[in-house]
Give the backbone structure.
Amino acid sequence: MIDGFREAFSLIIGGDSQLVEIVLLSLRVSGIALFISTVIGIPLGALLGLARFRGRRLSVALVYTGMAFPPVVIGLFVYLMLSRSGVLGSLNLPWIPRLFTPEAMIVAQVIIAFPLVAGFTMAAVQGVDPALRLQVQALGASRWQTTWAILDEARVGVIAAVVAGFGGIISEVGAVMLVGGNIANQTRVLTTAIVLETNKGNFGLAMALGVILLSMAFTTNFIILRLQGRSFDE
Amino acid sequence: MSVLYSLRDVTVRYGSRSVLAVNELDIHAGEVLAIVGPSGAGKSTLLRLLNFLQPPTTGALTFEGMTFSPGRDVPLAVRRRVTTVFQRPVLLKRTVESNVAYGLRLRGQRDSAAAIDATLEDVGLGGLAKQPARTLSGGEAQRVALARAMILRPDALLLDEPTANLDPYNVGLIEQIVARLNREHGTTIVLVTHNVYQARRLAQRVLFLLDGREIEVADTHTFFEAPKDPRTGAFVRGEMVY
Ligand SMILES: Nc1ncnc2c1ncn2[C@@H]1O[C@H](COP(=O)(O)OP(=O)(O)OP(=O)(O)O)[C@@H](O)[C@H]1O
Ligand SMILES: [Mg+2]
């Protein structure tokens, strides 16, 4: 155990090249996936929370289902779609990612994260005082400005929605293992590397990866809390 | 006097319940019109119509010759000529200053620091510019809401109980501001108030609403001294039983 920690720290401090590569890939895959999920999830959440339209109830039910969906099942689904004989994989189109690539992992992570972002955003905007909408309209807000004002009032909750999305994918193993394949130097990310190194008995390396994963989660949450804190202070 | 708003056979219904039914009402450009009536009479509902925040269920609302009937969207440029200070002010989670700047920012105006300071000074809140709005007292919040509306220099300013939470000194202050806006800028003011003395002090005409119906509208003197409808007199004297 102690040895593990020692090895972990020497690897981290030494800037082990394999380690650096794994960290960067994790950040790239989850970062891009989170960006896409945010771009889809926040407008979708705002729409579901604020607008009244046919099919809204069904959409809300689908988003809630997505939030509670086991990631590994999403991984399986993406696997089946993208595999050579799958519905999408067999089309062989250039913009459809192939299995066992970082892009396939991004697809899976987007499907995991965007319902989380949308669902929590919806809850956040629904928590805003309904009288605010009339108030900003009375002050001359257009439809977009009204939506923006409501999102801005709900910003603490909207930020939490993005955090939830990030938390849901950065620490996820099953789906990235299935669609990424944990190929060294190509699709090996922190979580899948931890599983592998633990199985191989390389506890030091596994521990180092775990420490990095933890501190990444901590740092992002810390930055986000700071952002929230600033809006509390206003 | 030219007519700014005219309402014809306007009704508002929620489900099967009719909360407003105004057969004929004109609001003149440049006047101060007070609306009085018991709780639930439909006063706030009428203000929402006048600010184009909700369409009438039936009937037509004409603003400067443009007629808006149910199902017709009111252009943003028209809505921006009117604003409301609501009965319960809702401030944004920002500083006092940026609350007051909000309506101007929506219109793309940015360099308005001087106007903001002057307006806050007007409502007696000169020292509070940087304070977070959610930490204000009820009366301070109400005055910020008034400052935020009047800085827009609207053609029509709709006030829903603007002095409900204020002490006598601040009531006097707000009344002076309202009278000055009307006198110096010709702003049309529609003032909902539970205080008949305030109506008397500020308004040129008074409208009495009861159960969503216009019982009487008359110039202030006639309204208080020689009302046509006996219910008006009873209401003014506080003898009305609902
Ligand atoms: N969205 C709504 N749905 C159903 N009923 C409503 C709605 N809004 C208002 N009402 C009803 O319409 C009636 C008129 O309401 P309004 O707010 O206009 O009254 P008011 O004259 O402003 O009263 P107060 O002096 O208490 O502010 C009330 O009985 C109210 O319950
Ligand atoms: Mg009211």
